[in-house]
UniProtKB/TrEMBL annotation:
It is a multi-pass membrane protein. Residues 535-616 form the RCK C-terminal domain. Belongs to the monovalent cation:proton antiporter 2 (CPA2) transporter (TC 2.A.37) family. PANTHER family: NA(+)_H(+) ANTIPORTER YJBQ-RELATED, NAPA-TYPE SODIUM/HYDROGEN ANTIPORTER. Keywords: Antiport, Ion transport, Membrane, Transmembrane, Transmembrane helix, Transport. SUPFAM superfamilies: NAD(P)-binding Rossmann-fold domains, TrkA C-terminal domain-like. One of its GO terms (molecular function) is antiporter activity. Its main location: membrane. The chain crosses the membrane at residues 6-24, 31-50, 62-82, 103-127, 133-153, 165-189, 195-212, 281-304, 310-331, 340-361, 373-390. This is Monovalent cation:proton antiporter family protein. InterPro entries: Cation/H_exchanger_TM, Na+/solute_symporter_sf, NAD(P)-bd_dom_sf, RCK_C, RCK_C_sf, RCK_N. It is found in: Membrane.
Amino acid sequence: MEHGASVTSLVIVILAAFITPILLHRFKLNIIPVVVAEIIVGLIIGQSGFDLVEQGSWLEILSTLGFIFLMFLSGLEIDFSIFASRKKRAKPENRGAGAPNPVWVALIVFSGIFALSLGLSYLFVLGGFIDNAFLMTLIISTISLGVVVPTLKDAQMMKTTIGQTILLIAVIADLVTMVLLAVFVSIYGESGGNTWLLLLLFGAGVLLYFVGKKFRHQSFVETMAKGTIQIDTRAVFTLILLLVALSETVGAENILGAFLAGTLVSLLSPNPEMVKRLDSFGYGFLIPIFFVMVGVELDIWSLFTDSRVIILIPLLFIALLLSKILPAFILRKWYDMKTVLGSGIILTSTLSLVIAAATIGRREGMIDEQMEGALILVAVLTCLVAPILFKKIYGRFEDEDHKTVVSFVGSNRMTLPVVRELDITSYETHLYHTKLDKVDEKISRSCFDIKELEGYDLENMKELGVFEVDLLVASTGDEEENATIARYAKEQGVERVIARVESPELATEMRDLNISVFSVFLSSKALLKAMIEAPNVIDILTKQESALYQINMNNSMYNGMHLKEFPFTGDVIMVRIFRGKDSIVPHGDTELQMGDRLIVTGSSEYVDELKMELEYCEWC
């Protein structure tokens, strides 16, 4: 009977996790993060609501695995390439005067956050709310990377200097507080190990990193990564469990091992397709169970039986705001007051690590169950309030002068005509080539600003800023050189890379690295075949009056709207919708979604009108 009740509870939790995003979409509640909604649904079906869920081994195991996988994906989200480059690729924005170095500014702001959090923690100790100032410092200073990243993406700020600065502050906070949480357990935990044993864990991480770096591009590994073997995914899960087990062995928390595994995979620049699979498995199955169970186990009504806890909730919320907003005033040197306040408020959001710290604190007897619930409740409130206030205070990000920056490595008859055709209001182009002969130089110098290179030395090109762009095209006369440049550009964090490659084997390798490939031979063959079989298609591609255009769907007002309900009636036909890696043939029941790339054809007048309508990002 107990087994049946356990399975029934699991089914209820799974159904709750499944229905939650559907309800958010149906009632247009996209402003609420899904993880917060899952906790709220957990409150409804758990102890605070209808009490439909009974604890059991199934839920306990899956919830623990969900938390471990959440910490792994948090580590995987960290892009370490933003620390590597001295010159950042962020675009200056019209709200700031000058472009500060995001790394140094982020370090200074986080130092201020940590120092202020420490001071506020001692006030809570003096007030009798908690006995351990170290634990409260970690709770106040942590920042939720899982809330900050999607909020910045929605605001189209990820490529701006202020966006990178906010992201870096959250990344540093995630790293530092996670490591300090492990140190905390080793020092104060009754079952904790020696702090020095943590070095063994990090040493094992370094060793595994070099092993992974050596084998990641081996041909046999790439072969076994396909089909039913999926050796890369198996390696990731082996790494997680190995470091989790080692973490527990040295007396640290299992989540530290999971977080370390995520950072190692991130450092190894994993295949984007594999990352997508891991995200799908984590956020599609395990992680929702964990967040629903957080709500299930939280008894809100018991919190209000203790006057001390009732006073703590608003005081802690205020402390979280002060600890982030006051240090953010360092940004006032470069940005206006709205930007400073908005940045401080979005940094207030905190969730996963607060849950971890509160759970550990209760387990070690430092706080009681009511205090744990109060800490988690405040964390949930910050994730609800911070994104909404950020959008209200900061408003729409104004970057009217933003251009896509493109580097062309190799100036020849393939690239020069393309440069001339690109819209100068949308693209900023930079041409690079080795020393030109006199005839070519006389022709090209009159029309193009080509920067000469002594040779295609990667480090020298990096110093010249070749890789500090949004898009890089490698089109020298040597396909091996193009492949080398393209690989390095990906390692440097260039989002889109295009390489001119003719051999099929090399082209396959490039595509596996998420590098776009073009071939003169294949392009010519495809064009000739199309002219024979479908000449009208060629007309669409080549004639200005019937050209194809790309429009990015950024206007939240049309998010979730069916095409048959779309109010725009101009002379425009939607040919294709690209959504992530998917290519969708549009029809009446197709829903528009934020981030869609629409391929349309029609008169330029109506296309421009539609572009203004859909690419305008309007904040509520």
